[in-house]
Amino acid sequence: MKKKILTLGFSTLLISPFSYADSDFQIFSTFDSVVYTEAQPVKAFIDDFDAPLTSGDSAFTYNIFELGVGYGNFKVGYQSRFDYVLSFDPDTANYLHTEKNDLPFEERDYVYYLDGKQSTTNGLFVSYDFKFLESDALTITPKLTVFASTHFQDANVEGTVYSDEIQGALEVDYYFSKDVLFKRFTPDENPSGVGYSFDLAADWKVNQDLTLGFLAQDLFYETEYEDSGFVNGYTTEVPFTETSDGGIATEPTIRLATSELGHEKAHTFEMPVRIKAYVDYRINSQFSSEIMIKRYDQDTFSQLKGRFHFWDHWALIGGYETNSESFLLGVENEYFGLNVQTDNLNIDKAYYANLNWYMKLAF
Predict the structure, then answer these.
(1) Which residues contact 345 (CB under 8 A, 6 or more apart)?
(2) Which of 131, 251, 276, 279 has the CA that lies 20 to 30 A from 2?
(3) How far apart are CA 42 and CA 350, in angstroms?
(4) Rounded-to-5 percentages of helix, strand, coil across the chain
(5) Strand pairing of 299-310 and 287-296?
């Protein structure tokens, strides 16, 4: 998983109206990847968690590659995805940072909360552009992807841990293909999973200069895994009991059901919805602008982008995004586009990175 995040740790699914030109038949390919981390820069977050700790409670990466063909309004093709979403309490980040860097613990209960989802999928997608209004000004595009998967994590751990002692109260609800938390309950064979995702996009050309767009990704997303590894249950605070001789005895309570010794079971896996909305305005023959709002799980990003149009349908792109505090630079036309976005060119210090490209051959 770490290698994939490093390799794919950049982003963007381009929803610009320049993505496709009108053509009866086309062959196209897109790559979309985004990585964002809080509490640590991307590299430190993935590796040793050893950079100075900053505030934050989330991290994610979404990565998608597609290769397909289109005829008229119809498109079909192959899709490969790797996604990872993590929410955590800032106190948990503090605890992990203290532990991994051999720093002194405070004598107190640390809040321990992790909610993580990760999956790798490969499948086929199909979409259709429904045209409405005069001159086909409004386009609504549903997209269905059916895929197979054998690698996933679906974990929720919540409770408290006292200082650096093995003591605390935790509730665990954890399903997986590989046990990365306890490192002992990985199934002998990867679980088999079949699932689907449904996206919905809308593009409305209000007039010659103004375009409004909307995209809901993973509006519906579900995978059914058979023979999944799991750990379910809880541990309690160390209770104190009085012995027959008047002394005090302590004994922790641990009740965990696991997939050890072939006790795997089925699990339903879901992913959160991602929303993008934009307003695109053509200022004149040389300049246009775009405002985009993106919502990933619990994080919202606002992006302002400008284009300088030159030659035959080419555009040079620049922009800035809030929350990630990143800058965007790119180039695009009807048949090719490349965008790079990051908050720091030094990957060791970057908290956000974004890469996108698309290519199309039209006949």
Answers:
(1) none
(2) 276
(3) 6
(4) 5, 60, 35
(5) antiparallel
The pTM of this model reads: 0.86
Alpha carbon 304 to its chain centroid, in Å, reads 22
Q: Taking Cα atoms as reference points, which of 163, 158, 179 lies closest to residue 235?
A: 158
The proportion of the chain whose per-residue pLDDT surpasses 90, expressed as a percent, equals 76
Query: CA–CA separation, 261 vs 130, rounded Å?
Result: 52
Among 127, 144, 31, residue whose Cα is nearest residue 81: 31
Q: What is the CA radius of gyration of the chain?
A: 24
Tell me which H or E stretch contains 29. Answer: strand 25-37
Q: How confident is the model at residue 236 (pLDDT cuts 50, 70, 90)?
A: confident
- Please report the pLDDT score of residue 260 as a whole number: 83
Q: What is the mean pLDDT of the chain?
A: 89
Kindly list the distances between the CA atom of residue 205 and the CA atoms of 25, 214, 278, 330, in Å, as whole numbers in the listed order. 23, 12, 12, 23
**Which amino acid, one-letter code, is at 87?**
S
Could you give phi then psi for residue 38, rounded to 5 degrees?
A: -120, 165
Whether residue 287 contacts residue 309, with contact meaning beta carbons closer than 8 Å, is answered with yes
CB 316 within 8 A of CB 249: no
